[in-house]
Amino acid sequence: MVDEQQIRYSDADLMEFKELITKKIEKAKADLDLIRSAYMNDLNNGTDDTSPTFKAFEEGSETMSKEANSQLAIRQEKFIRDLKNALIRIENKTYGICKVTGKLINKDRLKLVPHATMSIEAKNMQR
């Protein structure tokens, strides 16, 4: 339970979050490598482009796939960057403090969204 007077998470809590975030970064980097390798395979035409039959629908779907992979890669890179920024906040001992309200972000929220910078209360105020 978060004490209302508590202004930051304890060092033990911060270390727990650091471990969680470090694991998420490793997984996110592995996922990004998979996305990139899928994209690179998409660029490898093989002998398909020498085939005499016209494959407009397949080419369209390949283009969509490349665009989707590109968007996935961009989102994944942003996710990794956000997680690394969270690690910096841990080092600064400012992790888990809402940038809008200045209150501690709920621990359960941080476990689900470890790169969160706003509490649910602040998020709802944006709507």
From TrEMBL:
A zinc finger (dksA C4-type) spans 98-122. This is TraR/DksA C4-type zinc finger protein. The keyword Cell cycle does not apply. Gene3D superfamilies: DksA, coiled-coil domain. Residues 94-123 form the Zinc finger DksA/TraR C4-type domain. Keywords: Metal-binding, Zinc, Zinc-finger.
